[in-house]
Amino acid sequence: MAGRSGAPGRSVTSRALGLLDAFDSASPRLSLSEIAERSGTPLATAHRLLGELTRWGALVRRSDGRYEIGRKLWDLGLLAPVQMELRQVAAPFLLDVHTTIRDTVHLAVRDGLSALYVDRISGRDSVPIVSQIGTRLPLHATGVGKVLLAAAPAEVVEQALRALTPQTRHTVVDPAPLRRELAEIRRRHYARTSEEMSLGAASLAVPVQVEGRTGPVVVAALGVVVPPRRRDLLRLVPVLEVAARGIGRALARTRDFR
Predict the structure, then answer these.
(1) 142 pLDDT more than 80
(2) Which of 3, 51, 105, 205 is the residue whose CA sits 20 to 30 A from 197?
């Protein structure tokens, strides 16, 4: 659940941010009472601040009385480098991959113990999946997430291994085999899953790297989602690798990814 921060003496700004933090991908629409409870804000204060946030455009009040994130925050979010520059650079490469395989292609970055999906292309016949742009999914249950986890600092890996939760009956939740899988991902430079996040969906992902001062740095993961019965999944690895190298070279020429 989104953060609760009801400590006394908070500033107006921190209270307003707490209200916004009540929303997440599982709860994109909330009532006044739900926002007040999730943020730890008194009901009267929440009502007043929600009115101000709505007038500014950060939130929208629906006809049923519930609130949802407004266009103003979406527009501001698109200005963040992880959204604007990464998506702009990667977009043509994602399109190339989608044109080749005709299944869902997505791009993700690590945000704590989650894979944050920053772009996605899918078609009418693509496998139904839970990820949308802006969605955060567990690192240990997705192809892009496992790529990002394999490249994460040791302390992040250990934290993730202590917080493994099943998403389906196929999710790997035993730390020992997942640790071995991460080592294999580092060796072969790709990850694959089968119905670990969603039943009826398999995934394949590779790292997107830029050259850092001490060697290659993984800045994102590029992945595809296909039916689990697809037999040529590993043949898609070169397609993803070519696109990932192209994204990495393009990112290396931008200021924020050097």
Answers:
(1) yes
(2) 3
